[in-house]
Specification:
The structure holds 2 protein chains of 2 kinds.
Chain A lengths: L15 E10 L7 E6 L23 H4 L2 E3 L1 H8 L8 E5 L7 H13 L3 E6 L9 H6 L2 E5 L5 H8 L6 H12 L2 E8 L6 H11 L9 E5 L17 H14 L4 E3 L1
Parallel strand pairs in A: 2-4, 4-5, 5-6, 6-7, 7-8, 8-9
Antiparallel strand pairs in A: 1-2, 1-3
Chain B lengths: L3 H8 L6 H13 L9 H8 L3 E2 L12 E3 L2 H7 L12 H13 L10 E4 H5 L8 H18 L6 E4 L5 H13 L5 E6 L6 H14 L3 E4 H4 L7 E4 L3 E4 L2 E10 H7 L3 H30 L2 H4 L1 H4 L8 E8 L1 H8 L11 H19 L14 E4 L24 H12 L8 E5 L7 H14 L3 E6 L4 E3 L4 E3 H8 L8 H11 L12
Parallel strand pairs in B: 3-4, 4-5, 5-6, 9-10, 10-11, 12-13
Antiparallel strand pairs in B: 1-9, 2-9, 6-13, 7-8, 14-15
Classes of the chains: A alpha/beta, B alpha/beta.
Chain lengths: 254, 502
Amino acid sequence: MTDNLNDKKTGSESAVQINRIIPVSTVDGPGARTAVFVQGCNLACEFCHNPETQRLIDEENLENSGVRRMTADRVFDEIRPNIPFIRGITASGGECGLYPEFLTALFTIAGEAGLSTLMDSNGSIDLSIFTDLMEVTDGVMLDVKAWDPHVYKRLTGKEKNSALVNNLRYLAAKGKLEEIRLVCQEEWVDIEASLKGIVKTIPDEYPRIRLKLIAFRNHGVSGKMKNSRTPSADQMKAYEKSARSLGFEEIVLR
Amino acid sequence: MFNKDNAYEVLTSKVLTHEQKLMQLAKASENALEVLDVSDRMKTYFENGSIHDLYEGSAPYRPRYIMPDYGKFIKEGSEFLKVDPPKDFDELIFALMTIYRHTPSITNFPVYLGDLDQLIEPYITDLSDEEVIKKLTLFFNYLDRTITDSFSHANIGPKESRAGFLILEAEKELQNAVPNFTIKYDPDITSDAFMTKAIETSLACSNPAICNHQANANLYKGKYGISSCYNILPVEGGAYTLTRLTLTKLAEVAGNVEEFMNELLPEVVELTGEYMAQRIRFMVEKSGFFESSFLVKEGFISSDRFVGMFGVTGLAEAVNTLLNDQDLQYGRDQEADDLASDILDRVKELVESLEAPYSPMTEGKYVLHAQVGVDTDEGITSGVRIPVGDEPEDFIGHLHHSARYHHYFPAGVGDIFPIATHIDANPDSLLDVVKGAMNVGVHYMSFYAADADLVRITGYLVKRSEMEKFQKDEAVLQNTTHFGAPSYKVNKLAERKVRMTD
């Protein structure tokens, strides 16, 4: 992991590493969307199902990796033919919040083409400081990894900072919190505490924000959780029930 | 020629139902007549498989597809049937059941059931949703159990209506193979809510299919409808006949592209046209259909609204055969797709030069139709579809490919896509893709969930569970199971590329 992930050079004129572009994704927000997966993440979650996107690829290995360095313009050249078939694009990763200038450029072009723009973010980067990006972002799907700092550290490999709480508050206030996501696995995630934490952080807005409870699956997982159990359908129903009793109104199980 | 052995085999079959035997025996006796003058040149092309009469029989005595104006029937009733204009929903269903029973076609069953939502809408205002659904369920089950052939088609849309929603709701619960439904879809007219409901229904029970309304609304003077396997035809009329040109077989006897385009195609198209003209003439001049049918006398159909359908199939393998030495493939390689366009341009030009008798609707021309296949086809992919296994990786690329070839076939063409089941959580994503497909010029498409029991074979629906029974030599209700089972196997339909997987 390098420290220059937040390098300001990643603007419209310079390129970022793109892991892949899925032309028609059905699972990255409402409707059909082209999903752009950037390479590089500041966390290393044990349940990550595409851990190959976590580390940047060394320049000399780029050619054989399938990962491409692309400018926003070039990424959009690949999105353009999909336009009549999609309602928007979603930036995912990796952590797309690491590339605010690239994203601002990409979302500006997409918005001009009539597409909606969503970010899929791990919540650990304070998005409120990227005002230009937030201007052209229609919504953020925010991953609340875990709530207790110890649980968070064990799961993500990083200290919990204040960004998650800031992001929840900032995005909810701006009407740009598209969805709150929580991957559920009882041994690794403090689900109840996370739900309560969300309620306490955005007490006015949380009932109407879509909560997506995702059952952990070990597909693609290479970390310590690769042999962890998938919660049963009943278990997921129980999580849904407690979320509902806390006042969440729109709950999606996946 | 009367084939005694075949007739005996049918008559003593332990697999066919009584009704199936009856119809096959009728066909055998029709085929004992020789009223058409099939020349030696025609015979050559019939024998090498380039021309196929689609089992229409050797003495045509009714049009292949009949599309009565049921709206007129409902308004005026029928003197012949002794049915008065219905006053309530029960009477409407009774009236429709009665006229369907007396509407023939090539299959002997009604292939077109009308714009059901529009027919029903005025009659349900006083009924609750539950009452309507209960009556519709009985009606649909009656159709499924008595029209024992999947080539029967009801239409809904493009406008949303309460009746439209309730039809979809009732259909969703039933898992019936009959009738087929098609929704006429126009994003400018059809609401997103209605279309999403239609898509959700198609993922639950493989119906309805989707017809691009904008592309078809002005095709014929007056109304159009969808019958049988995606035949887009004038309502109050239909199609006299459908004969098909199997490009695959023609390519097999061609020495090269030049011979195919400039010698074989012109000859076979001309002979097919002549053959179709003979069928139409016999039907109109000799068969007595248009003189005897109450449908004609009471104005529910009119002979000047019938057309002749010129069928084309097996484009993919024709192209692949012609380009065999260069190892180029239809659906994968630009050059192969370009040759496919050249072939269809040529076919179109040649068919337009033919004269279709008794066809004022189309100014004396035949209408092109991408024929979906017959049960004995092997190595012949339906119409202009891409063979299973050769489909492009990405769905959008596939849809662009469809759009490139659909416009050649005003009288019907379509593609079938199995859809990943997880889409249930986000049906809007499929709505978006459908809008895109209409936008780029896809004329007709249909879906089924990748794990559904009801599978679309070439155009009609068959249950996997029924095919399994049939393969164990058990009698099955629907005769289309007889066609579906071999086609499903031979054409490797289980391996169709599943879409919307990401």
